[in-house]
Write a structure and sequence with these properties.
By secondary structure, the chain is α+β, with helices and mostly antiparallel strands. The protein folds into 4 domains: 90 residues, no CATH class; 125 residues, Beta-Lactamase (2-Layer Sandwich); 162 residues, Reverse transcriptase/Diguanylate cyclase domain (Alpha-Beta Plaits, 2-Layer Sandwich); 241 residues, TIM Barrel (Alpha-Beta Barrel), CATH 3.20.20.450. The protein contains 27 helices and 28 strands. The strands form 6 sheets. The protein has an 8-stranded mixed β-barrel, surrounded by 5 helices. A hairpin with a 5-residue loop joins strand 9 and strand 10. Helix 8 crosses helix 9, helix 16 crosses helix 17 and helix 17 packs parallel to helix 19. It is rod-shaped, with a radius of gyration of 47 Å. It starts with a strand and ends with a helix. Bound molecules: ligand C2E and magnesium ion (2 copies). The site of ligand C2E has 25 residues, from strand 20, helix 17 and strand 24.
Length: 667
């Protein structure tokens, strides 16, 4: 006779209380031994314990009823009455281990399955305890990290992981343990040879009885994928203003070409006088211009060339497979395309660019990387700027040795303005009929402590871009006005006129007019003796502000001349807009006089047009007798040029004025 408790009812469906010896069979349960064979009643642990008097522990017993099998762990302890050696009964406890066994079996099965996969996978398969300790790593580790699996086994999961990535890996582990779901994480691991390998790990927990027993993970090398993803991301991050590639994309492209050993040419462009547009027409006009330039550049290049904007008005073209000759031709093409007038918020502008060119033959002898190429092209571009606008300079060792660094020029120029290193040279304006000097053009010179006497080409752009031009112009005006006022005291020089050059930047400076009037008052030079030379392109830049500034000078009696006339486009249309006294025909047209029919036709037309408008004509850059003769025959009265006089320092000019030698007439 047996007594059972309540748990027996729950597990086996048998009412507690007294049950018969055959209670299991009565309830329909067939009793099995651990190996699954039937278990005769007499051998049951409880009967064994009573019969032998020895406790039975940890015996596995199966109960089967229909399709259901439950496994129990059984322990039986014999019970004795005092003084009686023979047990009268036994106390048996049954623990249901069905779930646990199932999990163990599953684990064994999955382990076998797992090993099979692991040993043959190109991914690195690992097993970890929940605390991160590595139990197993598959042989693919050798290919991925150049390491033996034993190096990892027994170590923490973060071993060999990049310090910056450890926190990420650990929090992924924690999240995985908490949620119990598959999770993926990317991090870097150290290869035996010292490089970092980007890997991606997929981890999944293996659970039993609601507990995470271990983690299984599969890890693969994603370095190549990461790199191409990063490259795509960079390329996608183009320049938002123009849609061209940005600096990062450009560098990537350059590196790719260099890696592939491809020859290439790189053109570094900086727009000339872009600041003027931005300052006088406003930023949205500036942006519009940049977009137009971007479109023109892209349209000029071949498929496969990459055009980028580095920021501001700096553009770069990378042309694969192009050698120096082709690169120079491309630069010329670009210049032509950019030179067509641009309509920007109602204004017609003319754009040019200074271009630095670098060529790389793709060979191993040239070890410059992408950054170095860009830097060399930048240096060449500044060289081009220093030579005057709209030029191109090809990089060579010589270019690189003495880089004209803009920042240096700016700093030096600033101190030059403070230390009085800016001086003025004067080029005579000569009356052709008599050879008399009727006026002088003041031209800025910089007596540089190291580089010697510098012409405006090597510092004017920096001065213009930085605004230092305003101070420079004031110094030039002041020096020249005082000088000319003094020279007007010389016999025969009472009417000597002064021309000074003014950039649009200076014209737009609000204090400039007052300063000029002060200078006139202070030096006693009459306003009518002063001519401001402005580039005709200044008239295109802004009809508002610049024209108003010019008009106010004229109201005070100052005269205006249009400098370098004929070089800007659509200038003729704008001539009527300003009260201009004279135009200076550019050297480019004077060059062909006496030889070139077309140049002659242009100058003839300019002379008659300006004559009709009541302006006078001055010829610039007269270098040869034929040119002078042609001009005289055409009725041009005044000219400047090396044939007549070069620009001279004040002392030399004074000597000339005193000697009063009419050179042009005597030839
Ligand atoms: P620009 O006003 O057209 O001045 C004439 C330039 O032509 C001068 O160059 C002069 O030296 C040069 N030149 C004169 N005759 C001949 C000739 O027969 N043959 C040749 N090949 N060249 C000749 P420079 O002094 O180098 O000045 C260059 C430009 O710099 C000037 O061109 C002017 O636009 C600008 N500049 C000069 N000084 C100042 C200044 O104080 N302020 C401003 N804003 N600009 C200035
Ligand atoms: Mg001039
Ligand atoms: Mg000129």
């Amino acid at each position: 006779m047996l007594v059972s408790n309540r748990a027996v009812r729950e597990v086996l469906g048998i009412e507690p209380g007294q049950v018969s010896n055959r209670f299991l069979g009565d309830a329909g349960w067939e009793v099995l031994q651990g190996d699954g064979s039937p278990w005769p009643d007499a051998d049951w642990p409880i009967h064994q314990a009573v019969r032998t008097g020895v406790p039975v522990t940890d015996v596995r017993m199966g109960l089967r009823r229909g399709a259901v099998t439950r496994w129990l762990k059984v322990a039986a302890r014999p019970l004795r009455r005092p003084g009686d050696d023979k047990p009268y009964a036994a106390l048996a406890t049954f623990t249901d281990v069905t779930e646990r066994l199932a999990a163990q079996v599953a684990l064994q099965e999955s382990e076998a399955h797992f090993r099979l996969l692991a040993e043959n996978s190109t991914d690195v398969i690992t097993r970890h305890l929940a605390d991160g300790t590595c139990l197993y790593a598959s042989p693919a580790l050798r290919d991925m990290l150049g390491r033996e699996p034993q190096e990892l086994e027994g170590q923490q999961a973060t071993e060999f992981v990049h310090v910056e990535d450890r926190a990420r890996l650990i929090s992924a582990l924690v999240a995985l343990l908490r949620s119990g779901e598959v999770s993926t994480v990317r991090y870097r691991m150290a290869h035996r040879d010292g490089r970092w390998v980007w890997v991606e790990t997929v981890m999944r927990p293996v659970r039993a009885e609601g507990r995470v027993l271990e983690l299984q993970s599969s890890t693969r090398d994603v370095t190549a994928r990461m790199e191409s993803e990063q490259r795509l991301a960079r390329l996608a991050l183009g320049d938002p203003l123009t849609g061209l590639a940005n600096r990062a994309a450009l560098l990537q492209h350059l590196e790719d070409l260099l890696d592939a050993g491809q020859p290439l040419a790189l053109l570094f462009l900086d727009l000339d006088r872009f600041k003027v547009v931005n300052d006088s027409l406003g930023h949205s006009a500036g942006d519009e211009l940049l977009r137009t330039v971007a479109g023109r550049l892209a349209g000029t290049c071949r498929d496969g060339d990459v055009v980028a904007r580095l920021g501001g008005d700096e553009f770069v073209v990378v042309a694969a497979g192009l050698a120096e000759e082709g690169a120079v031709q491309l630069a010329e093409r670009v210049q032509t395309v950019l030179g067509a007038p641009v309509e920007v918020s109602g204004h017609e502008l003319v754009v040019s660019a200074s271009v630095g060119i670098v060529v790389h033959d793709g060979g191993a002898t040239d070890e410059r990387d992408a950054e170095a190429l860009l830097r060399d092209a930048d240096v060449s571009m500044y060289r081009a700027k220093a030579k005057g606008r709209a030029r191109a300079v090809v990089w060579s060792e010589a270019t690189g040795q003495a880089p004209v660094e803009r920042l240096t020029v700016e700093q030096e120029l600033r101190s030059a303005l403070e230390c009085g290193e800016i001086t003025v040279h004067y080029q005579p304006q000569v009356e052709l009929s008599s050879g008399r000097v009727v006026g002088v053009e003041a031209l800025a010179r910089w007596t540089h402590p190291r580089r010697g006497l510098l012409a405006p080409a090597s510092f004017l752009d920096v001065a213009d871009d930085t605004g230092l031009i305003v101070e420079l112009g004031r110094q030039v005006l002041h020096t020249a006005a005082r000088q000319v006022a003094q020279w007007r005291g010389l016999p025969g020089c009472e009417e000597l006129a002064l021309s000074v050059n003014l950039s649009s930047r200076e014209l737009l400076d609000p204090g400039q007019l007052e300063v000029a009037l002060d200078v006139l008052r202070e030096t006693g030079l009459p306003a009518g003796a002063l001519t401001l030379e402005v580039l005709e392109s200044v008239l295109l830049d802004a009809e508002g502000a610049v024209l108003r500034a010019l008009a106010s000078y004229v109201e005070h009696g100052v005269r205006l001349a249009l400098d370098d006339f004929g070089t800007g486009s659509s200038s003729l249309l704008h001539l009527r807009r300003v009260p201009v006294a004279s135009v200076k025909i550019d050297r480019a047209f004077v060059l062909g006089l006496g030889r070139d029919r077309q140049d002659e036709a242009i100058v003839r037309a300019l002379c008659s047009l300006t004559g009709d408008l009541g302006m006078s004509c001055i010829a610039e850059g007269v270098e040869e007798d034929e040119q002078r003769d042609w001009l005289v025959a055409q009725g041009v009265l005044v000219a400047q040029g090396y044939l007549l006089h070069r620009p001279l320092p004040a002392a030399a000019l004074e000597a000339l004025l005193r000697a009063d030698v009419p050179r042009a007439v005597r030839g």
